[in-house]
Amino acid sequence: MDRGVRMTPPPHGGATEHGLGRARADADGRQPFAAPTRTPRLRLRDRDDPSERVDGAWWPRTGNLTSELHDLIAVLTPRLGPTLRVAFDWNALSLSQRSIDAPDGIEVDGPLPDQPAGVMYVFGSDEQRLRLLVIDPATEAERATARLNSASGASPSARPAAQRG
């Protein structure tokens, strides 16, 4: 069973390959966002397989997480509904990018007092929340895949869809 969104291999070069393409919001800059320009490397637990720790994992392509935020939100929308807020311990690069992005109606906050380090909270409508382990973009592919599988409850030997033969 494929528990995640189709994943692509690590980038190899060029601006698009480094995740610098962006999903475009509709005419007023708000959700729903268009299809992702790059499919996020994401795995989620099944809805009926809850966890006390995380609901899945995201392996961004760059350290500028907010540049990939619209793509992430676009693929989470079917599961979460419109995203209202994202809480995370953002790095300086992501914060500076966010300050120049067009308004999109999503509240981007620092972490909540009890929020674990390295876990992003994505809040949707009807008080739904997904807890995503954020894997450092520089993580070696085999280790990142193992962390994606562990966080999503997949078999440790499961390979991302793009790597299956």
From TrEMBL:
Residues 1-55, 145-165 are annotated as: Disordered. This is DUF5994 family protein. It holds the Pfam family DUF5994. It comes from the Bacteria. Residues 150-165 have a biased composition (Low complexity). Residues 19-29, 43-55 have a biased composition (Basic and acidic residues).
